[in-house]
Write a structure and sequence with these properties.
The complex is a heterodimer. By secondary structure, chain A is mainly α. Chain A has 16 helices and 2 strands. The chains are: A mainly alpha, B alpha/beta.
Amino acid sequence: MKSKSLSQPSASLLVRIKERNVRLTLISILLLCLFLYYADKNFNAYQIRVLNLCAIYTVLGLSMNLINGFTGLFSLGHAGFMAIGAYTCALLTMPVAVKDQNFFLAPINETLREIVLPYPAALLIGGILAALIAFLIGAPVLRLRGDYLGIATLGFAEIIRIVITNLQTITNGAIGFKGIPAKTNLWWSFGIATFTTVFLLWLIKSSYGRAFKAIREDEIAAEAMGVSLFKHKVLSFVIGAFFAGVGGGLLGNLLGAINPLLFRFTLTFNILLIIVLGGMGSITGTVISAFVVTIGQEALRFLDQPFSLGFVQVPGISGLRMVVFSALLMLVVLFFSRGLMGTSEFSWDYIIDLFKRLGKPSGKPLSKGGTK
Amino acid sequence: MAHLKIDSITMQFGGLTAVKDFSLELQEGEIIALIGPNGAGKTTAFNMITGVYAPVSGKIYFKDRDITGLRPDQITRLGIARTFQNIRLFKELSVLDNVLIANHLHLKSNLFEAVFNLPRYRKEDKEMLERSLSLLEKLGLVNLRNEKSSSLPYGQQRRLEIARALATNPEILLLDEPAAGMNPKETEDLTEFIRQLREDFDLSIFMIEHHMDVVMGISERIYVLDYGITIAQGSPYDIQNNQRVIEAYLGVNGDA
């Protein structure tokens, strides 16, 4: 990776480029808003739901990428944090009548029954609660490294799920909730996805982000350079869990019904699939991959139905579409071991460069730290 | 007051005593060296000073302050920086990022100030960048600042490691075999470079080295370890003529 040139572009040029990039970013956000407005009015319920899922998986993928991709902590506890967020948010947004309907086996905890909060407050509390639990788990568990950390976090996610299954008067046990108000719309999901993207971009660009990456590259060297491993690992873990909680809240209020089985560890692996395909350590990659995987999962639904290959009749095998993703994952691991984007990021400079040199073949990699 | 005072530290791994009763005093502005055959326990001594291992017994004082058993990041914060025998750069990151990370420990802004680029962080960030660039300038790496650190030639990776250690703003610099793998010309440059560092950055330097030209050329005093035991200490002249040191390096002729 050669630097562009050793001669320095003038300061005024740099300012102009920066202003241009900010303008382009604002225009893109405006275009996104227009698209959402159009989609909101014209798309059918199914399409809107898929779009919502894309945005939610973006939030979840980004939060997991912060922990696994940027800080290099092999954590598999995401489903647990999502469960905390989803249950909290659902409990706080359901009207009293719906709660009474849901809790027919055992009555709901009196205090919780009365509390009904606006959606944003519920999402925020869901995120904060997930972050709090992550802090309690992270403080002891983050002393482990590599596979051991993976196993410990996986175990804690299962513990969270089992606890939820057994807290009958708070979570309604194995039955879960039905009739959660459908508060998640395109504006909420894409708004939060955009916020998460921008927040993480700024975080990664900051000195704290550099410290996270230093830990990923070499723990011993990072510590010798004065980076407190404990503080920064916990910080990354807690921020990741916060966004996972918010993402879980969005998901619960989109689906309308949740139960503990939804938050099994397969959910964590779905998100892991997204960040591995997109590139561990790339925000752009995660966003692209979240959309591709989510839309792909819907587009490939025909594989679950009976279909004919002309010479052979395939009976309906549910889950056959996931085979495609398994194959895709194997291909990526074999041939693109760093995922779609590696650790590169989208940048306007690169796009404009590309247009300028259109037609001329080039192998120049994406420059880092662009705007999105 | 000694800048760094080590009072008979001992390190054991299971039944193996890697370093036994190692004592040392480093005065302000001094350059001293620790030498010894492979496996003598030199790096273990370094690791105890920098907090990677806690000594089994003994004390370490930095300007009369007991730092025994502190974590590595705390010790670096106090003002003792180190390099590694086998280069440990942040390989995937740029040269500039490597140096910027070493500035992080002095950051006062909290996470939110940093993420939302609030005034205090913006000021600190600018200072960090200026400090790092001027440091790279002094060490002749400024033109390479956007290169991936693992793509640098070996000698410059060593130099970058020293730059990174200096970015933590240390008073004492510990160099673990800075000349390892260098050719004679590079070694000669390095000797001059280390001497210059002491002047430019007001450092006391403690290094492990195998290249005798470097050791004899710049160190004021030398300590010799063999099988974890300090077998000699003194000026380069004393060490060169010390019978036990010669035996440790060349072996004893048993019954010839």
